[in-house]
Amino acid sequence: xxxxxxxxxxxxxxxxxxxxxxxxxxxxxxxxxxxxxxxxxxxxxxxxxxxxxxxxxxxxxxxxxxxxxxxxxxxxxxxxxxxxxxxxxxxxxxxxxxxxxxxxxxxxxxxxxxxxxxxxxxxxxxxxxxxxxxxxxxxxxxxxxxxxxxxxxxxxxxxxxxxxxxxxxxxxxxxxxxxxxxxxxxxxxxxxxxxxxxxxxxxxxxxxxxxxxxxxxxxxxxxxxxxxxxxxxxxxxxxxxxxxxxxxxxxxxxxxxxxxxxxxxxxxxxxxxx
Length: 274
What we know:
By secondary structure, the protein is mostly helical. The chain has helices spanning 3-20, 26-36, 42-50, 52-62, 64-73, 78-109, 112-131, 146-156, 166-176, 181-206, 216-241, 247-265.
């Protein structure tokens, strides 16, 4: 196996894990970094899809006690039943829209300029959200009802636009709808499990002809890198939001988006279309 290819797999795995659960858009980063690494062919695309399993597993591992508690309590415990129902309700809006419109979105929006614009607009929305008076109605994910879940699920639909950020849409949406910072972040993590799992399985199945046993080591490196970096990111974000707001992520998005536009239109970097 080519050492350079494994290095690319390692870099993309770290990028996936570190950005998946931060409000800065993992899809946008993977597309752009893949462009810089010249790894945006069909093989590279299915790779960036498949390594999301590593990030999903990181959340399952970090919250394994809650996951086991919910699974063992389904059908017997009211809190577990409500939690599962909330996840299902929040999952459905983006799943339905994605099923019907994802091809159109990929054909027209998976390019540097739309990603940069989405990064900048998302950053401005975060700044606006942080300047609003934040009225907390829900202090724990177990206190959420189906209406909170539906609102967060509708917010997640915005993440179908590359550069928006699934975690950013759900976390900031949660803040708008009365969730505490910690609750919004944690519900976003749990919502990622069915959402990312369904999207990843669907995309991998559609692109299964590009999967080859000879690439196993490449996928293994990316998977492990995504798992470890996602675990670090999840733990770090939960600690961070306990004492800080999301302003730093907003400015990062804005600066990153401006850099993309400047380098693309200034000819500094020839971003590939993907």
